[in-house]
């Protein structure tokens, strides 16, 4: 979208606790269309990592194939990245995570990559509660192949060519909660204020943290009649609450009217702080989250914010009882039983 | 009932015709192991249906003191406990052979042949008289016939006592009932037949330090020794027991006895696509990781194998081949995934292949596969097969050198990165086609790169530049040529070439081919021989082919896939290659090889016929 980005950065740019300014978290120049929602999400990721004092090299970014899956090149250039094959990012993330439990795994996918070709892997990554952030940049269409409807396009939604989508859409957040995902949020690429704290909270969540971000495709799906256009989404958005992410040890200073605020303590001592909480919704109650999602859907609303969080989430490593050290640093002496043990095995097989 | 003079000491084939799901497998293995403990090589083949209960299943044991471990046609003694298959089972017995059956009910006239002997034992009646529990009645029927065989073949009783003591270690109270069943069989033979038979077992000392194990368990153990920490798999016959064995050994060797925490992660994936994806993700991140599958799984893994080839991520895949195409015969053997594996995935791809022949090689080549995959930063596919993987084999004992270090390949750590001006993931610094990689998380500001299946330049940046693309894929060929020098060398059967023609074979064809070479010598047919252990083919394979007039390529598939591979990769003239093929789903036999070679000789080795 931009051809030239000035190298110059103001020397007085504020630094985070690690001494990095926000530009340290940027990536290569985006080649997506001007105005693409995905670029806003990339910017939110940069901002969230900066604010959350993430060491970029302690984060691995992963993606599948599609416009959205290109974005990991556009943020965190000091992180390793893996642009895999279409719909298969979750399996790469699973293997990578098993190899080294100490990194943050940041997956980016699209609606085609997740809701169609990658549905199986998405579902099973949730089922295993893989410790990763999984962002879907959801625009309801296939951008790279020029605008075909995807499985998240709403029934009756019209795309740029005037075609009306015949099929019911797959609601990824609704599906994730049915499957037992331990962190589910929904947002809009145009709402950075909401998205940044959600990403920060997701990175702190020890399990599968899913964020479905409606991210309009300016080129193929931003027309009148589309339910994934900027205009439509802005007019139909409704939030569960406003979200703050409060890191560990921070003092909670802001005061809100009692009854409209909630704090959810995360496993590492940090908090998700929610304000103007929607009536009848409780972030740690799966049933109320399901209700809220279905209710919003029935009213043609895009429900955003944190939808559900399980503060007692146990991730895949916990379930399969892997050792505390990353598996990729174990040495021969820890892994190989050696010649003596083999002699015993041979004896038993005689 | 008069037996033809057919004296065969330590050289005969026994086949058991059972119903699957009735516990016959462990009884039949007990018999095999007893022969092995008598110091005589014995090869069992489990011929089983793709079914859990109720269908015919056979277990065939070849006993051969010359050490021939391949299958042999013709049954010397049939133990028939399955009425479903009885008509065919009677017909299988060689003239002069024996047919043991359950004589609780009278044998129908259609089962009577003049040229074989019948050994009727009232198995069901004996079980009903001696056991009350229905499950015991079924299980001990099997042990009774093993007892009867031990008397007929003259197998020492204390061998069984030892085996049962080992088998039921910790569950000793199960031993007496088994001993009783064996004794019932023995007593019945003593009271009713002339024993021992002309077919019998005489103690020898021919197995030395050999062990008896299946190839899949050996692969699982090899992966443990190689330091594999992540296994991802999807169940598929006949590969399932590879990861199951890996898991069982991990329980023993990788699990903290106090905390229960494990130096291993095993994930049963949702499908083969995910399984290989996990393997690639883990290897990318610096853990040794593998999967095991069979033909249909390999087909599904193609896309990811192309990614691993092009993005240069190590991966180890154990393909236990079964009879294709499609679902084929899932419980029968074949060597028919060769071309599929060699060129898996779209575009110009080639993969390193390994061909083990014995459980010992399954163990060793699995360990070596991890070294090769990391040294070459590419997938390594080990092609074993159902015969090797699921059947127990007499194998040389496993060996491991404690001084052996894992060859992790070219990986830069933080310190090395400090000394590098600009890291280029795909820069051919050493001019061998193999470039340096880094694991995520190594260094705060150096060594990060973007792994991708799209075309990339030396610095891993996306490119659509034709020159950059060509430089990259040409370097991959340079790496391929490096692979030729480090993959396992073939086994040559002569120090120096002596004969005009040569045999070329690999994998489980070894057993039958070695026997066939002896049979050919008896017919004054002399050949040199080579057993291939790896692809790409190195110099030794090429020289062997070049220095012989005709090469007989022995393989277990219809389309002569190894022959094709030799033609494609070495440019061998097809006229020079004569195929000996076996593709009926059963392991190849020496007789079959000799027959096909004899036909070829009679054609004066003029042309190659498929």
Give a brief description.
By secondary structure, chain A is of the alpha/beta class. Helix content of chain A is about 30%, strand content about 20%. Chain A is globular.
Q: How would you describe the overall organization of this protein?
A:
The complex is a heterodimer of chains A (350) and B (610). With 350 residues, chain A is α/β, with parallel strands linked by helices. Chain A has one domain (22-317): Thiamin diphosphate (ThDP)-binding fold, Pyr/PP domains (Rossmann fold, 3-Layer(aba) Sandwich). Chain A is 30% helix and 19% strand. Helices cover 38% and strands 19% of the residues of chain B. Chain B folds into 4 domains: 8-200, 3-Layer(aba) Sandwich (Pyruvate-ferredoxin Oxidoreductase, domain 3); 213-395, Rossmann fold; 414-486, no CATH class; 491-602, 3-Layer(aba) Sandwich (Rossmann fold), CATH 3.40.50.920. In chain B, strand 5, helix 2 and strand 6 (93-102) form a beta-alpha-beta unit. At the A-B interface, strand 2, helix 3, helix 5, helix 10 and helix 11 of A face strand 9, helix 7, strand 11, helix 9 and helix 10 of B.
Q: CATH topology of the largest domain in chain B, what is it called?
A: Pyruvate-ferredoxin Oxidoreductase, domain 3
Estimated helix fraction of chain B: 25-40%
Count of extended strands of chain A: 13
- Structural class by helix and strand composition of chain A: alpha/beta
CATH class of the largest domain in chain B: Alpha Beta
The SS-based structural class of chain B is: alpha/beta
What is the element string of chain A, with H for helices and E for strands?
A: HEHEHEHHEEEHEHEHEEEEHEHHH
What is the approximate shape of chain B? globular
β content of chain B, as a range? 15-25%
Number of helices of chain A: 12
Query: Distance between the terminal alpha carbons of chain A, to the nearest Å?
Result: 69 Å
